[in-house]
Every structure is written in structure tokens, then in C-alpha cells.
Amino acid sequence: MALSHDDGWRYEIMTTNMSEVFNGVLKSARNLPITTLVQLTFYWINTYFTVKWEHGVGRLASSEEFTPYINAKIKAKVVKVGSHEVVLYDHVEGHFHVKTRHSIGSSNRNPTHIMLTFKKGSCTCNKTFLLGFPCSHILAVCHCRAIDFRQFVQGYYTTCAYLSTWASLFYPIFDELEWPQYNGPIIVPFDSMKRLTSG
């Protein structure tokens, strides 16, 4: 994964989440003998990758440009666009002022004033910069000016990127009788170091 200087925190979060995902997948294999644990880990991860790959292929065949996660997020933000008022200040740089009106059930009844530079894709709410997809303010400007919002969605949210994530292949393990002869040292565990109880 190629990272820019501002993507480090995002990569750290993604790494943590991936660790938790695989930890959940392999949780039931922890107390197995080591050989069985390694085999089970191999087969489960292979299944995990192939299933995700097939999902990605299906989405690509259906011409879904972005992942369902991003589609749902953008649809939720499009709902907010109707409560935004957009005012243009600079045609060249694309300076906009967006006033947001909070919903009736919101505890904050005061409107929020957002400054936006469309040419740079920057917004004072910073959500587009932090999350990698357009905030409701940028979507409001896109709607007002008939501009395609997809330019503000980062590439790692596309279906192609999703497919690339799960593109790695695993290869079947040969039967033990077909393994090449091993001539290295034989490692024998110490009985005194075996853990008899869990925890």
C-alpha cells in the first residue's frame, strides 16, 4: 500500500482493524496443537481470501465503482444536502460558504457556517481530508454546480482496490509423503517448558 504523509494514521487504524478481524477468524483455533493450528489457519485464510475475491468480482461485474461501505456513507450524507445553503464567493478558486441547518430533533438549533475551497477539495469541517470521501458540504456544492463528486473519493475505496486487496493466491499443501527430504536439525521441545494450563 502506497501512503502519503497524511495517510499514516489511517493505515495504523486499518492495520489494527485487520488484526482484530483475523484474530476473530482464528479465535477458535488457539488451543489446538501447533501443527493443526497452522493447517487450520492456512485453510481458513485461504477461504477468507477466495470468498472476498468472489465478492469483489461480483461487484465489478455489476459495474459498482465503490464498495458498499462508501455507497452507504455517501447516501447518508446526500440526505443532509437538502438542509445546506450554498453561496459562491470566488469562481476561480471555488470558494464557497455553506450554511447548514440542523434537523428539528437536534439539540443544536444554531446553523453551522462552513468555508470550502472546491479547487483544493478542502473544507473547514476536515471530514473529507480525514475520511477520504466527500462530506455533505462538498456534496452540496457538487449538487449545486452539477459537478461529479467521485473525484473526491480516494482510490482505496474503489471496487478495483477492494479486489486487489484480496487478489493474493494460496497454493495447496502437498501430502507429507511428497515433501522433499529434510536434512536440517531436529528440534525437540523441553517437557518442563510446556504450559499445562490456559491463561
Number of strands: 4
Low-confidence stretches: 1-14
Q: How many helices does DSSP assign?
A: 6
User: What's the gyration radius in Å?
Assistant: 25 Å
Query: Shape, please?
Result: elongated
Helix content: 40-55%
Mean pLDDT: 81
Q: Which descriptors apply to this entry?
A:
199 residues, 6 helices, alpha+beta
Describe the model.
Among the domains are: 31-66 and 154-170, no CATH class; 80-152, no CATH class. The longest helix has 28 residues, at 34-61. It contains 6 helices and 4 strands. It is elongated, with a radius of gyration of 25 Å. 41% of the residues lie in helices and 11% in strands. By secondary structure, it is an alpha+beta fold. It comes from Vitis vinifera (Grape). Residues 112-146 form the SWIM-type domain.
Write a brief caption for the model.
The protein is an alpha+beta fold and 199 residues long. It contains 6 helices and 4 strands; from the N terminus they run H-H-H-E-E-E-E-H-H-H. The chain has a 4-stranded antiparallel β-sheet with strand order 1-2-3-4.
